[in-house]
Amino acid sequence: MTGASRFLLARLAQTAVVALVVGGLCFALMRVLPGDAAMRIAAGRYGPDAMSAEAADRVRAELGLDNPWPVQFLDWIGDLARFDLGRSLVSGAPVVDELAIQLGYSLWLAGAAVLLSLLIGPAAGIAAGLRPGSWPDRLGLAASVALRSLPPFVLGLLLMLLFSIQLGWLPPAGFGTWRDILLPALTLALGLAAVSSRVTRDAVAAVVRAPYFAFARHKGLPDGVALRRHGLRNAAIPVVSYLGLQTVYLIEGVVVVESIFAYPGIGHALVHAIIARDIPMVQGTALVMGLLFVAVNAAVDAACAWLDPRLRAVR
pTM for the whole thing? Predict the structure, then answer.
């Protein structure tokens, strides 16, 4: 079996485990929430004024919520094995159709955030790493600590106050134009860049201390040329590896930031599904987020193997 085949089989097995664990946890957590799920779903379907005990009983019988938990869970696992995530208990639409729309919006937001963070973080890290202990290094450390210590919802509110309320440059919420996506993307990007800049700084500083980089300088190459020819590929390995870890921050941040900026993505949908006790939507949304984490980490592993051929030999 080739290394690529082993890599794909390992990722497929990881995907199956993630789907089972995420689905099981969501199922259990939604069942232990206080209150009657049937009453919540009936309120979401018919409105608070038309909600009654009879309506809740009809919803409970229709959706099988009075069945034992193991039966409900096995039904969901059976549907999942047929790639059927079910239908939203509130809207009645297939979960896959709703997620396809919302996931697309979230991917645009996440892509814009990662792009902005790559423009900010590695550039600041390279400037600091080439001159460790200099004022750009100390300034970058202070900015990194300040930005990373702020939760995404606080950072988002501060950016909203500055760019929307005080300066009036960008809308505080909305959807449809590039101006609407800029503030939520910047909120996520600053948190990502805060850490990636320090990872880049340490990687570049290690390259600068390496004998091969000193030899390149002794040959008379300027720092920029020596770094481009002999340093960037070596420094990129820990930075790319860290991108996989940052996926957790990105997924967590998407849920919060989409809710703050009223952005109609998958995180915004997850919050509304939890409030409405829309169990298939919660399970489907969490499952997609878990699978995204696996996919991003697989891409990161493949990129690291491309950057460092020694990793291919290990695998």
Answer: 0.74
